[in-house]
Here is the input.
Amino acid sequence: MSSLAWQPYWRLFLGGIRQQATYRLAMLGGLIANATFGFLKTAILSATVVAGGGVVGGYDGAMMATYVWVGQGLLGSLNLNGRLDLATRIKSGEVTTDFLRPIDVQGATVATELGKAVYALLPRGVPSVLIGALFVGMGAPSSLSTWLLSVVSLVLGLIVSQTTVYVLATVAFWLIELRGLQTMYMMLSGFLAGLFVPVSLFPGWLEAIAHATPFPSMMQYPIDIFTGHGGVERVAAQVFWLIVTWMAGAALTRAGRKKLEIQGG
Amino acid sequence: MDSAYRAVLASRMRSQRSYRTNFRLDIASSTLIGLIELAEIWVLFHAVGVLGGYSFKEILLVYGIADLCFSLADLVVGHCDNLPTYLRAGTLDVFYLRPQPILAQLITSDISLKRLSRAAVAATCIVVALWLNDIDWTAAKVLLLVLSLVSATLIFTAQYIAAAGLQFFLINGAEATNAFVYGGRYASTQVASVWTNPLKVIFGFVFPMAFAAFIPSLWLLDKPGPAMFPSWLAWATPVMAAWSWGVAMLCWRWGLRHYQGGGG
Here is the structure.
């Protein structure tokens, strides 16, 4: 693709960043909520490590603290609530104007949301990690390659989070009201992404189920790489889920658009 | 007032049943919320057996009491969370035109039936926990159980109302109040004996989440309490409920006085 074709998506990405930058108070609120949950999670998970004799699910005390605070930091950038403007626009019919524009609806939505996600790393991600480092103490990778792989995995995680929510939003073409599904998504995605308990602490059968979904790609895998619990195979799994969810989203968008045209929307 | 309230409730129920598929999904998803939150706790106890002096069947009692009372509070006042939306849209000004207290109107503005299914999951947990744990029942323990169910519901409703009062100032900062409403709910289902001292002060006495279920469970299960939470404190739950309501009413009045209207 020529560089010109990428330009509108790059602009939308930057627009997403700007949009998010206007909600300063919301960011502060988010940080306070993040930190509160972080301290509560640290307390219960540290007690779990102690009860497990110093190591549980491959995590020692410092690594568990890293898991908690890096996870809390990612929280503001991941869409784990299942809500997306697109679903509202489909419900109201506004999406028809989106289809008239010369850019791809899926590409535009993901680019905007990704912009918001990247911005949120600054006011929510960084302070959350700092609070963890300051009050609890955490571990960090020692090699440069692990740092680089962590960054790649982090970016992939942010994208998979958006492409997966996009698939959910397109269901609105058929269901109209998505609230019930969104609530269900919110619960399952957080649990299976490793938000409250690391996936490696799950009993075997539940861990297998989690790995068979795109959710660990969003949060658990980037943390795994950062804490030395995984490597390139984690990134490969993320790429796999990125392709699957992207293609599913594209197919559902085409089918939904056809449905609108037949109904004369 | 009573018949008007019933009419409002009936219309809410009709409107929620109109999107049938979604209503079923709503019920299913809020049942799932209860089950997944329980699963989060179960996974931890499954991994190590005993946490903070509690086994899974014992924490089941804490989880059941806390979640039942939170669900009931959420059913009655949970939609106070919508206040920022009303504030931005100027809808709140309409409430001023009616001859009823603003808070009463806000509370009746949306009763969400799906929340009942989550309360059902929690109630089941309590029943199972009472059956699994070998509790040495006395009249005092029955009284304490009832007292803590009532107090915990009052404590959670108070958090919602305090949060709503602060929304008049925060509008876009709703997540700050989520820290004590939803963070508090999360705290209330935990074994509070694992908390650090600052957490014990904040979620034990300022936002008295440990009093919702954990501290009463110490007394019901004949357990000695950890530092700062002796088990006799279980009898102080009504005091903590009163404290929560005092703070909530202050926040609400303060917020309402600050509100200048949407300019509509």
Q: What stands out?
A: Chain A touches chain B through 41 residues (CB under 8 Å). The CA atoms of residues 86 and 140 of chain A lie 38 Å apart. Chain A has a mean pLDDT of 87.
